[in-house]
Amino acid sequence: QSNFAFFPEQQVTFGQVCHVDKAHTGQVNSLCFGGRNGEIFATAGFDGHVKVYKTEEGTEISCCSGHAKSVDIVRFMPNGVLLVSASRDDTARMWDYKTGQSLAVLDGHTQRIVALTISAQGKYIATGSIDSTVRLYSGKNGAFHTSLVGHKQGIKHVVFRSDETRVLTSSRDQTLRLWDPENGDCLAEFVGHKSIVSGCEFSPDGSLIVSSSLDKTVKIWYADSGTLKMTLPGHDSWVDWAFFNTIGSRIISIAEDYSIKSWDPDNGRQTSVMEGHESYVEGFGLMSDSIHLITGSQDRSLRAWHTGTGDLVGLKMLPKEVSAVEVRNDGYRVVVGDIAGNIFVFASALPSLSRDEMEEVSLEREKLATELVAAMTTN
């Protein structure tokens, strides 16, 4: 019998590191960590500004001004020095965060940009728009590279495969498409959802794709062929996000029924349900062990979940509704923005178990839960 079969749940704690009052006039729309080790972070606001702060002190480094409307998305380039932002003024911009200088305007879209992503090594920047196209730019200088044209309605999400040789898009036209970013050719179309495809992600090895939809389902596809592997039903409302954990052993889905679910991508079995939020989840991130998930919601809460068991293992209430959340890669810092323009940085502490130990706890609890359900069904 495992030593962890009856191990009590440990708590994830959130200790406040710093607070920036009224960083933006209006809602914080997006957050991201940058620098070599996440020692800085950037914010994008409804006020049209992008700002950069020191993570530990909360002191402002620069303010990047130039967009004519709300900035909805901000991302650091992999080098941690350059920033890219996307705005409701139909443009994206590349910035030098140290000086706040705009280095390039990434234009060409005719309607609002709703997706912005950067390939793993920084070769490409991709923007997706309501105008139904995706535009690719050089990560070196922001020069236009090519357009991805084929979707019949607006883009919802764009993501690169880790080797930068493929780019995946989801659309309001109920499909996904796989593209070659070098020449803009469409390599595969994924057909099967019955409503808007809200999101899409590659598995860590790039062999599978997971998609989420307003048809209340999650689907798993074979990346190379575009064929459907399986459908995961179970949510009672639109599914906003679905993604693989960092080791590819689970899929996490987040829906507008306020629930979060974990799935086994091999057999489609639902492994846990995380319930407790009382409004929409606005941001999320996995901690470094790939087991604990942090979510922030309009219900003013920041929560930590054990994705193996579904247990709530950490809770921090905030003064205002959460509008954006970013978890640093090492899992030890979380930055949160709210609808009033305030920013909080928290130190997140993991339970004192190794990753292998936590995985064993998770698998053991899943096994016990399955046995309990079977016993209840038999009785």
- Proportion of beta-strand residues: over 45%
What class would the helix/strand composition place it in?
Answer: mainly beta
Shape: globular
Main beta-sheet strand count, sense and barrel state: 4 strands, antiparallel
Low-confidence stretches: 1-8
| Strand runs, count | 32
Number of helices: 1
Report the average pLDDT across residues. 92
Describe the structure.
The structure is a single chain. This protein has one helix at 355-378, and strands at residues 13-20, 28-34, 40-45, 50-54, 60-64, 71-76, 82-87, 92-96, 101-106, 113-118, 124-129, 134-138, 144-148, 155-160, 167-171, 175-179, 186-191, 197-202, 208-213, 218-222, 228-232, 239-244, 251-255, 260-263, 270-274, 281-286, 292-297, 301-306, 312-317, 322-327, 333-338, 343-349. The chain is mostly beta strands and 379 residues long. It has a four-stranded antiparallel sheet, with no helix packed on it.
